[in-house]
Design brief:
Layout lengths: L2 E6 L23 E7 L1 E2 L4 E2 L3 E7 L8 E6 L4 E5 L15 E3 L4 E7 L8 E6 L4 E5 L11 E4 L4 E7 L8 E6 L4 E5 L1 E3 L2 E2 L3 E4 L3 E8 L8 E7 L2 E5 L11 E4 L4 E7 L8 E6 L4 E5 L11 E4 L4 E7 L8 E6 L9 E6 L11 E7 L1 E7 L8 E6 L4 E7 L3 E4 L2 E4 L11 E7 L5 E9 L6 E6 L4 E3 L4 E8 L7 E9 L6 E7 L3 E8 L6 E3 L2 E4 L4 E11 L8 E6 L6 E5 L3 E2 L6 E8 L3 H35 L6 H26 L14 E11 L2 E11 L1
Helix pairs in contact: 1-2
Amino acid sequence: MTTKTTVKAFVTPALFLVLTPVLVSQSPGVWFSGTGYTVYNDAVGVYGDTPYGVVVADFNGDGKLDLATATSLTDNVTVFLGNSGGSFRALTATSFFATGTRPQWIVAGDLNKDGNLDLATANADASTVSVLLGNGDGTFGTHADFVTAARPEGVAVGDFNRDGIPDLVTANASGSSISVLLGQGGGLFAPRVDFTTGGSPVQVVVADFNSDGNEDAAVGASPAGVSILLGRGDGTFGAYTWFSTGSGLSSLAIGDFNGDGVLDLVTANRQDSSASILIGTGDGRFGATSDLPTAATPLQVVAADVNGDGRLDFLTASAGRDLLGDGGPLTLYLGRGDGTFGDPFAVGGGAFPTGIAAVDFNADGRVDLAIADGPNDGVDVFLQSAHVTPNPASLRFDLRPPQTTSAPQIVTVQSNGSFAVGISSVVLAGVDHDQFAITADGCSPVRLPAGSSCKMEVAFAPAADGYKSAFMVVHHDAPGGPDSVALFASPADFTLAATCQGGNPPCDGNTRATITAGQSVSFNVLGTPTPVPHYPSPVSLDCLNLPSGTSCAFSPSSTLDLNAGPQTITLTIKTLGPSGAARAAVGANLGTYVYALWLGVSPIALFGLRWAGRHRKERRSVQFLAPFGILLVVSSWLLACGDSLGSSPRPGQSGTPSGAHTVILRGTAGTQEHTLNMIVVVR
């Protein structure tokens, strides 16, 4: 399991669409949990706000890793000095150092060759790079600014003219370019020289992609691609070559994923929630792009051997949040060593990523993570650790006679952390712990290797009638323990709740709305199984106590299926206005008018036929037609009388009556029934 440490800095990144992650559930033997460190300190009157980028290095020379992040909204950098074990010291007034306007990225390097690490930030609003020379004790001098092209959002260190003096390069989002600033020694830099790229650059990394000894630049750009600019070794670059990636490129990392000694690339693509793999060919070019799914909206990517098997992996950090509102998940792809990867795994979460670094903070030989966490105003440090997950989290048993025992149910305990976990015991606890029994225990005591699992069986064995509840507790040595499984013996049940959808007409509360006759109002109806997450029977919904002229309808169905958990449907209550009622009444009574007309005409027709029958020539015809005339008279009379005795509304009848009406929503499943009152006020 991972331990998360948040080093805080205020961040307000752009809002991105949150989609459903596509992750498998098996354990990769890796888990990250975090601890938060804040990057502001009101007590000293100085604070950082909105961290972008994170860099890890030993800034004070004590042999422990430190952190630095560019805090964008307060135009400074925040430096966290490390302790042993992956923790960090509290911030002081000397933890904050001013930069140019709106720093977007940060890098570290010995820029003046004095043996102390320095910092450089790309300042988007100022179109500058700030250089902060280190004093060797974790503090930094006053920033010096150097002009770049418009809106630099990324910066990297290299030696592009091979003179042994560090140079800088920035990725400029507004100008489709990189700016190269050649170092002159002493922390000074020559005026920029710009080189054209494709797209809108967001990040730049430096490496020798064609093995000619000269440093090249890979520039990740929005909307979807990487520009490769091959260095000439004299501080200049050739024309860029474009390689397409997934949509919405937001981050870029380097690694050798197939073990051929040639550098490859991986990108995080926020718009289509993917990572793109570009395998290098050794001449500065890359083969066809392979896209892999990640959790929703990945903003950062890093390459590292996360599970320690000697093959390079990569991990993305996403902006999507879980149901509790916590930060987005970490998606891990374990490399096979041939440029391909296994299935993706969710291996932790809790940060909204605006920067990422992969290092071993606590010197345990395992890769840990530092993630700049904008909205939470800090940096989250994720340490690899053990992690235990019992599944399922709860079990329900049917009630049964005393002195009998139910069939056992199985609980699986999964070790999905980064190393083995020791399970010491499994016990029953709670008020009714003696009403349940562990019938098989394959989990204690045991040392459970990472990625493996064990099983237990538990049964309900009541000594008395009634509802029962208890817990099965798993004691282990992983962080966050012990873990437990809730046990219930009760009939399954469900609850109903409703929320008015609002808009026009207005809602007066969750289950109350005021409308005008002729309008409709809709409610979201939520069915929830209780006391456990599943209800085995379908729940049929209907409406009771509807006022006249009112109807109700359910969408997409009038049946709730709670076997997989809570479900929401839409209930629409429709009223009838006075004009609509009048039209309906006129239409319903149109038959009355027609029958009355027939009633008046039929005797006349019969009289005419009898009169015509007095003429000898037509007597035979009259005798033939007379019975039909009589039948016509009788049927017309019956139809007219029947309509007049019916229940159809008369013209002028009003629609749904005004006032407050209580419509009862009823849910029925077998012998169980629950109701919910909805108040509809009709004006």
